[in-house]
Amino acid sequence: MEKFVKYNKLFDCYSNLLTEKEKECFRDYYEEDLSLQEIAENNNVSRSAIHKTVKNVEDKLDYYEDVLKLNAIIDKLKEIEAENEIQIIKQKVNEILENF
Q: How distant, in Å, are the alpha carbons of 9, 23, 36 from that of 2?
């Protein structure tokens, strides 16, 4: 379940950096909960080709997050949004900015 949540969050951040085929394969596997075999049959390709595509998308999403850190920043901003104390908000924003 943790993997599912992680990659869906990363997909929300970085899906525009993927090809249409990669997006379609990801959605079928992660959002529609289709098996690799079902996706392969729907696309007239082998199961191993779909597995390779899903793995490639996961690797790309991990790489984009490692480099760009958008998901981490979004999580920190959501934390800040819930904060009421202005000094704590300023401190947390400064922590984010120091990492750039």
A: 11, 20, 19
